[in-house]
Amino acid sequence: MASSGQVSWKLEDHPKLPKGKTIAVVVLDGWGENKPDDYNCIHVAETLTMDSLKQGAPEKWRLIRAHGTAVGLPTEEDMGNSEVGHNALGAGRIFAQGAKLVDLALASGKIYEGEGFKYISESFEKGTLHLIGLLSDGGVHSRLDQLQLLLKGASEHGAKRIRVHFLTDGRDVSDGSSVGFVETIENDLANLREKGVDARIASGGGRMYVTMDRYENDWDVVKRGWDAQVLGEAPHKFTNAAEAVKKLRENANDQYLPPFVIVDEHNKAVGPIVDGDAVVTFNFRADRMVMLAKALEYQDFDKFDRVRFPKIRYAGMLQYDGELKLPSHYLVSPPEIDRTSGEYLVYNGIRTFACSETVKFGHVTFFWNGNRSGYFNPELEKYVEIPSDIGISFNLQPKMKALEIGERARDAILGLKFDQVRVNIANGDMVGHTGDIQATIVACRAADEAVKMILDAIEQVGGIYVVTADHGNAEDMVKRDKCGQPLYDKNGQLQILTSHTCHPVPIAIGGPGLAPGVRLRNDVPDGGLANVAATIMNLHGFVAPNDYEPTLIQVVDN
């Protein structure tokens, strides 16, 4: 078992709740609560099992917060995501996350004092600083103001030549907003040029067609970005980035703009990445930067022909994969999450089974355990990864691996070898992101079937269930006006919402093993995902550590 200093790992026994009950912890990914209408795929899907939990005993179902400050993000406008959500679920406390970590590092200036910035700054004297990332104020993967501050700070700390390679959004923000973002950055770069810094936009493209693929679904997306950013080659060449976006939007939306490069008067690309340069990927969210990070960092790489592999100094805004230690250099250190509920429970003898499919396996293990890979105690834990479908969009196989996950969880419960069986069911989020409403309805129904399979097993063994979610998505699939009505574009087409939401998520408790008198509290109105850890500890028969967020349950004497 891992050594953890002077921490006292022994948990107090709960005065009213027994030990020894099998507990199923089900996390429905992308499953928020919203008013019922035709664009709430969870409602339309008629999810009988989840509906029965909601319509059952009111003291055993409630809503909790899964976005903004409840999960460590800066503002209530910040949508939650799977990474910060699972961190909060497992840690039992709220840690500064993603954008907030970057905000703090930029505001304090510590970003320029860290090893990551010192590393890339070694290229400033003779090389170019390249900044690659999503140009957006959506706050999901990146933020425009952070890029602006980084441009200013890097120039003040020695960067003499800067090139920006941007990806247009249209997924987490309105389609068409990219033109304004480009004009804003162009203005900032012009101000830097007045101060003697050679600062320009070098390339661009839409996030879903250039660079920002994830889970190794389509390496051609990354290659298109590589060709423009590194090689300075693209099917479209322009002398002005704003004009490029306007022109290319005539045949594509922001998400799918084809790659382009900016060229000089000699038709030569102004910013290919070459030996001696520094590169920073400025997205703070990890999933859609990992593939590019591999191409930039790995000497042995065979996913596509890079043509040339420049000797650069590369750093991410954050470390994008703690298990792979990728990238090896980063500007902002991750939150140091210690004493997670998983570690406490293992130290107290709780045998744990965790399972999901590939796209969410890391969330129910690595992120749940505080960005820590591996087991706390392999004798007490078993983690199972079910391979996700690859090479196709998830709306084409919307059931994903929900039933397989349900089956593995069922077998783990019925086998009576584990005290906690923890799963993530990914359908609502992964299919919801495709914007395919009919497929997302099928996805929600499949997730519901998996939940039923798990709850039926809990019924058989006299156990307890905790069903919750990490953030919203499938409950609202359309953009809305200020009155909440669906938005349509100028052609009368419904504007589909593909992003996460800021809606609350449900938590339900129950099962034959739940002690009489246990009910969800109504005196924790702002309860969020971080309150779930203490709740689960209580149901295992333990009192949570004093500094954990309060439990969501109480025991009322009958």
UniProtKB/TrEMBL annotation:
Domain Metalloenzyme: 21-542
Reactions accelerated catalytically: (2R)-2-phosphoglycerate = (2R)-3-phosphoglycerate
Keywords: Cytoplasm, Glycolysis, Isomerase, Manganese, Metal-binding
Pfam families with a match to the protein in the record: iPGM_N, Metalloenzyme
InterPro entries assigned to the protein according to its UniProt record, in alphabetical order: Alkaline_phosphatase_core_sf, BPG-indep_PGM_N, Metalloenzyme, PGAM_B_sf, Pgm_bpd_ind
Domain of life: Eukaryota
Complexes and interactors: Monomer.
EC numbers on record: 5.4.2.12
Organism for this UniProt entry: Gossypium arboreum
Family: Belongs to the BPG-independent phosphoglycerate mutase family.
Pathway terms, separated by semicolons: Carbohydrate degradation; glycolysis; pyruvate from D-glyceraldehyde 3-phosphate: step 3/5
Keyword Cell cycle included in the entry's annotation: no
Cofactor: Mn(2+)
Protein name: phosphoglycerate mutase (2,3-diphosphoglycerate-independent)
Subcellular location: Cytoplasm
